[in-house]
Amino acid sequence: MQPAPEQSPHHAYPDHWEADVVLRDGGTARIRPITTDDAERLVSFYEQVSDESKYYRFFTPYPRLSDRDVHRFTHHDYVDRVGLAVTVGGEFIATVRYDRIDERGRPASAPADEAEVAFLVQDAHQGRGVASALLEHIAAVARERGIRRFAAEVLPANNKMIKVFRDAGYTQQRSFEDGSVHLTLDLEPTAESLAVQRGREQRAEARSVQRLLAPGSVAVIGVGRTPGGVGRTVLRNLLGAGFTGRTYAVNRAFAADRATVDGVPAHRSIGEIGEPVDLAVVAVPADRVPEAVADCGEHGVQGLVVLSAGYAEWGAEGRERQRELVRQARSYGMRIIGPNAFGLINNAETVRLNASLAPEPPAPGRIGLFTQSGAIGIALLSGLYRRGAGLSTFISAGNRADISGNDFLQYWYEDPDTDVALLYLESLGNPRKFTRLARRTAAVKPVVVVKGARHSGSTPPGHAVPISRIPDATVSALMRQAGVIRVDTVTEMVDAGLLLADQPLPAGPRVAILGNSESLGLLTYDACLAEGLRPRPPLDLTTAATPQDFRNALAEALADDGCDSVVVTAIPWVGEDGEAEAGDGEVLAAALHTAAAAGPAKPVAVVHVEIGGLAEALAAATSTVAQPRPSAQPSSAPAAPPARTGAANPADPGPAPASPASAAPLAGDGAPGTRIGRIPAYPAAERAVRALAEAVRYAQWRRQAAVPGKVPEFLDDTIDEPGAAELIDTLLGPDPDPRGRPLAHEEARELLGRYGITVRPTLPAPDPDAAVAAAQSLGYPVALKTTAPHLRHRADLGGVRLDLANETALRRAYGELTGLLGKPAELQPVVQAMAPRGVDTVVRASIDPAAGAVLSFGLAGAPSELLGDTAHRLVPATDRDAAELIRSIRAAPVLFGWRGAAPVDTASLEELLLRVSRLVDDHPEVVSIALEPVVVATQGLTVLGASVRLSPPPARTDLGPRRLPNY
């Protein structure tokens, strides 16, 4: 909304303050600045506020606003006087205002850095978290305008408002003066305020998903008058699943006297139903969707599943239609799955919702599945159905204009019915948030991701996402840092999901292999070695082995403390007549079930070749309830929080989720209470072992994540953060170029020196005499190097001469260099003192606009670049991240004494990585750093080259107040 012409001309309307937010109950609202056009809305809003709330706001009976009040509350300069409103359906439901004051409490302008703040929330919307969301946004506005503290006067009886301030997490002071509580809040974000904000975000977004998954009533808009069509299919699936709530069929073309469709009440609009509708499935042409959305919004529908196509996947016109759809739905407080969605499924017994087009509905199970593609969703559902796997929830989000994978991670984090989260993603709308949420969720349950459209420029139509410059290999590394199990295909995702959903996590990489085929056992053994596991020699039971032999061998392997998991291999039994014996699959499955249920909790996987009925029998759980079983190893990772109550009651927000540290044991981690019965079966050894290897790596990550890494305190003693900040401000200047600027060599050395990073000096050598003078100053032996951009760090092109021990050698090298590569003016040669011998490495840090700050490490040289042998971690990095970073490249053995060489000083290298991480994290203006080469010797290291680029800091959307993305 733009201001009226009389708005103060020298302070433009700050449209970047506008935001859609999710409230505590899962509904949405819009926060925006108040303008002069809002007078009528303000008066109408105030008339709906109770006398008690008015008294709490003004400390006196205040039945109505005067014309002067209305003028004051709608005229702001957006600097010293700011007002924000929360709107639903275009009408105010809450307001907040701040006025800048001086130290005596009088109206003031900058540089005064304190403001008085006051809130007013309609009684009907109190308890929805409106004031808490407003406080986040008005605090961010105030910080932007140079205000550092809020002051508030609150009546002692106004407990709700006092609680809003107290629970915000800001540093605050309270006193009792003249019959009121005087509060002062320091607006600088703290670890506590950020944790509070993210906790509220998680509960609100999870609740918004729960409202979609557990509605009390569903209306299908667009049900055909005759059998067939999308709407009629969804209605049939709803009825077939046995939905526990009320169902309605809606079509504006129904005859006035038509009462039912397929036994369901028929209506021409949502308004005609006359009862609350929680969820609407929209299956009408795109040009009729706005009418349907308005009908839903005006009659209190809480959420939409839009199956209709014709949006962003159709080009520019469709993208604008999609944006308008989101704006319209959010204006009514509704969230959207879609458009161009395939639907959603919730198999909870209290809900039994199938609002999708799925031809083969999945059985109930412990896997949650999210996909951005309807076609991939169909394939995944079909594959899971064939292998006997069950789902807790399924969502196909289509263009995911609103609800995304991030929202479902928020929901699955605390969902007691989901043990494993599977996601097929074609784009990441908010990579920083995804990484943060995935890390938290992975700490309590596995998250398995397939990333489609991995190559640059191949983002699917309809998915408006931030542009990212980082390659897919980096994305994969960052996902693994967050505990995400990244796989390449949907088949691998199903394979891993089946193992993780029904088997405990392995305590280590030791694998026992047993079966009745020596060849299949050897294939499994080789696959284990290829995946980095530690297999024991296969136990060949011979082709004469009976199911009882399998049972005894499996029981013995599970009881062996020397193995952490078991792979059973099986081929068909052949009778005397040469025919495979019928019924062997079911008998063998029963034997394996019995042994697995009786033994210690270790994962078991089966590799079989054409044994009829085996896979189906293994997939049939022998128990549908949690049963105690011995633990292979106590889980060292935090587990799932307590279950929410009232899943079938959308009006019940449920209790706040517990922190992961206090969560209950997670099914599948080897703790007592693990679900037992289903044993995953695979048609190939490689697939079973790959799934097992992912479980081993994930379990190791879980154990490590239970004890977070830290940044060593000794770094603080050698870091001059204020000095670096002052230097950066000086280098950028008062009017910095938004494109940024590279630092000269000496500027980079000075900045890095503030963080304890010493770069070996270089001296220019524009001619042979200058080179000799430089060498005499630095001391022999020296190196002569070109610094021309096209030759930098290209020793293979002959631009570097090393170990020049005297003047004669230096002059000869100078002549060879200029004779071979060009004139000195082109080469820009420099002289540098030789460093101790060691391994040449590269340390980099850069800011990606989508993913954030990334720290990278690899060995220097063409082979590493050619093979892409570089490791990555998100900033800020901990001591554990730094240690893992240098050990995760394929060439890492070179650092640790490969082929008899002396190991280098990796401790110094880890410290350097931490210092670079701190510099980038402390100063977002440092958008890239490259230290190349870094020569790591047996003792210490030497940074021979450094380049740094500064730029005005990019916006950090992940640190601001809560807001929904607008694509």
Tell the overall outline. Answer: flat
| Biggest beta sheet attributes | 8 strands, mixed
Could you name the ranges where pLDDT drops below 50 across 5 or more consecutive residues? Answer: 1-10, 622-675
Structural class: alpha/beta
Order of strands in the sheet with most strands: 1-2-3-4-5-6-8-7
Number of helices: 28
- Find the count of extended strands (DSSP E, 2+ residues): 39
Strand content: 15-25%
**Proportion of helical residues:** 25-40%
Average pLDDT: 87
Radius of gyration (CA) equals: 32 Å
- Rounded to the nearest angstrom, the distance between the terminal CA atoms is 18 Å
Explain the overall architecture:
α9 packs parallel to α10, α12 packs parallel to α13 and α27 crosses α28. It is flat and about 105 Å long. It is of the alpha/beta class and 967 residues long. The protein is built from 28 helices and 39 strands. It has an eight-stranded mixed sheet, with helices on both faces. The N terminus is likely disordered.
List keywords for this structure.
7-stranded mixed sheet; 28 helices; 8-stranded mixed sheet; disordered N terminus; alpha/beta; 39 strands; 967 residues
